[in-house]
Design brief:
CATH architecture of the largest domain: 3-Layer(aba) Sandwich
Largest sheet: 6 strands, parallel
Structural class: alpha/beta
Mean pLDDT: 88
Strand order of the largest sheet: 2-1-3-4-5-6
Distance between the termini: 16 Å
Shape: globular
Order of helices and strands: EHEHEHEHEHEHEHEHEHEHEHEHHH
CATH class of the largest domain: Alpha Beta
CATH superfamily of the largest domain: Glycogen Phosphorylase B
């Protein structure tokens, strides 16, 4: 079977880049050959770019495509035309197409015109593709609303990268980032309004004085291609909120891209990885937190509530309920029995969702699609 993988890689790829490389790396480790086709240009107005990509993607039996809304440029409406162009050209006497959909915008949050643009963007995936991969049952319900046939949807959970990370001693890591003897709440990843970090800042005065909150990750300062004016306004809002509440000695905002070593430092130093998100399809940050064996506190949006029920390897709080958030954080910092149970369950989920295990599910699906193609 000749398999290729078209994925968003390179500068600006963020979690999508890590996800794609983890799949390929794990398959190569298992002696399963899949050629990686780079899509470094996330924002382009040139249709010839996608015509050329489609030509390169056609010469195989099965094509795995990692789709996100940036894959065809952040040009709302126009990118749907490019999506149609790419999938149509690949499908012309080409390979069977299996598409991973990483994030799925919830239609109800958009205007009717924007909903139409999104449906146009996603339509070629279902019409020309053979299978669609999503990460959980909630994502499956979301993609059904776009018109995807139920029999084309396959759930494969987000993998956990254990091979390439370095877990450090918590106390040593705290010294490295300059906060020894502190209890650290960490929000890592793109600094965007959806991350809802203001909820943590607002309740900091109600937490013990030795608890600090660190927000670190790419922002509009150093990643303008993948940021928006709203991201800039949001960061400025977080700065104002910190100043207004006189929390400059307890809340630290670091808008910067991190090296692998820096990610290891911050993740290893964290006592709780916080994900107070307003909404989510899935979370690469959650998987990264589990990889580093961190205790996770997330809002009770449906994907996180689902994972809590399934694995009991994270804690959730009621979104918008400040007192519940305060009580839950205090409990996670002091309740040794609860912490022990969470660590035990995190170890179990790390084994179950290790990329070296999850990648086989991708390969099995590609082989199934290939065998069905051979029968015809």
């Amino acid at each position: 079977m000749n398999a290729k993988f078209f994925a968003p890689l390179g500068p600006g790829g963020g979690g999508s880049t890590e996800y794609s490389l983890a799949i390929q790396r794990s398959l190569v480790k298992a002696n399963k050959k899949i050629e990686l086709l780079n899509n470094p240009n996330h924002i382009t107005k040139n249709p010839l770019y996608f015509i050329n990509k489609a030509r390169k993607c056609r010469n195989c039996d099965v094509l795995l495509t990692h789709f996100n809304t940036n894959l065809f440029g952040r040009l709302f409406g126009i990118n749907g035309v490019y999506s149609l162009l790419y999938y149509f050209l690949v499908s012309l006497k080409g390979p069977k197409i299996v598409t991973i959909i990483h994030d799925i915008p919830k239609l109800r949050k958009y205007s009717l015109f924007s909903q139409l643009c999104l449906k146009i963007l996603y339509f070629p995936i279902f019409f020309f593709g053979t299978q669609v991969i999503v990460h959980n049952p909630i994502a499956k319900m979301d993609i059904l609303k776009y018109g995807c046939p139920k029999n084309k949807i396959k759930i494969i959970e987000h993998g956990i990268d254990i091979d390439t990370i370095k877990i450090q001693n918590n106390k040593i890591a705290k010294k490295k980032i300059g906060f020894p003897n502190k209890k650290i709440l960490l929000s890592w990843g793109y600094i965007r309004p959806s991350k809802n970090n203001e909820e943590i800042i607002k309740i900091m005065p109600q937490l013990p004085k030795n608890v600090i909150f660190i927000v670190v990750g790419p922002g509009w300062h150093d990643d303008k291609k993948n940021s928006s004016p709203e991201d800039k306004k949001y960061f400025e809002y977080l700065c104002r909120l910190t100043k207004q509440n006189k929390l400059s000695d307890r809340v630290f905002l670091y808008p910067k891209k991190l090296s692998a070593e820096e990610i290891s430092n911050y993740m290893s130093a964290a006592d709780i990885s916080v994900l107070p998100y307003k909404f989510s399809t899935q979370s690469g940050v959650l998987s990264k937190s589990w990889a580093y064996k961190r205790i996770v506190l997330a809002s009770d949006v449906s994907p996180f509530s689902y994972l809590k029920k399934k694995y009991n390897a994270l804690e959730t709080f009621q979104l918008g309920n400040e007192q519940d958030l305060v009580n839950t954080i205090k409990s996670l910092l002091s309740d040794s029995k609860k912490i022990s149970i969470l660590h035990k369950n995190i170890s179990a989920v790390r084994k179950k969702r290790d990329w070296n295990v999850i990648s086989w599910e991708f390969w099995d699906l590609l082989e199934k699609v290939y065998k069905e193609k051979q029968k015809k």
